[in-house]
Design a protein that fits this description.
two-stranded antiparallel sheet, globular, Rossmann fold, single chain, alpha/beta, 6-stranded parallel β-sheet, DNA polymerase, domain 1
């Protein structure tokens, strides 16, 4: 049995892609650049918003100055609109409740900036007592650097062998590998199953109840 399950946020707990796309397109339009169809965004997200902006900006405009301008236009808009279209994936609220009731500690490790990570968790999962809710913070490297996982483990008082890390992307699988914890890929998120398989995680699941079985098996 695992004592701690760490979840990625976007594409794992919540389907946030429509709000991310809407807010990025708002920032692009504000700066006078072309916008993108929703279908393009699943492959732009996952490495933090600065990388999202770099990918979204047109060739020849991917400068640090423009990324900062995008950030200035994006964050106020996203903070107001990040729950317009986002929703938990089917079975996630029940999974979190079940794990908590079985005494498993829960945490979030996201490359989304910290304020939005906390806002979304508070909005969608107000009754779930997460032990740690960590997003991207100034001076802390983004995933797949394992520092965020190590911090959560330290705060929770658990060892690597007691951790299950759950995510939907290659970034998440690499994060788990770098942190030397058990990796579980989910197929309902933003990236294809083949991306998960490329990192050889210990588990790949298609339904939430499979995560409970993995976490609660002695």
């Amino acid at each position: 049995m695992k004592r701690l399950v760490i979840f990625d946020l976007d594409g794992t707990l919540l389907n946030t892609i429509a709000d991310l796309a809407q807010s990025t397109n708002h920032a692009l339009a504000t700066l006078g650049y072309p916008t993108h169809d929703l279908s393009a965004y699943p492959f732009m997200v996952g490495n933090g918003i600065n990388k999202l902006f770099e990918r979204a900006l047109p060739e020849g405009a991917k400068s640090e100055a423009n990324i900062l301008r995008m950030r200035a236009a994006f964050i106020p808009y996203y903070d107001l609109h990040n729950t317009d279209l986002s929703t938990p994936y089917p079975g996630i609220p029940e999974l979190l409740t079940q794990l908590h009731q079985q005494g498993v500690k829960l945490a979030v490790a996201s490359n989304k900036y910290q304020a939005a990570t906390q806002q979304l968790i508070a909005h969608y999962f107000p009754t779930i007592p997460f032990s740690s809710i960590l997003g991207q913070r100034e001076g802390i490297p983004v995933k797949p650097d394992p520092q965020i996982v190590h911090q959560i483990m330290s705060e929770s008082g658990v060892s690597a062998s007691e951790v299950l890390y759950v995510g939907d992307s290659g970034v998440d699988m690499q994060t788990a590998k770098n942190a030397v914890v058990t990796a579980c890929g989910v197929t309902w998120g933003f990236r294809p199953r083949t991306e998960l398989e490329a990192f050889s995680p210990q588990f790949i699941v298609e339904k939430c109840d499979e995560i409970a079985k993995i976490a609660l098996t002695d």
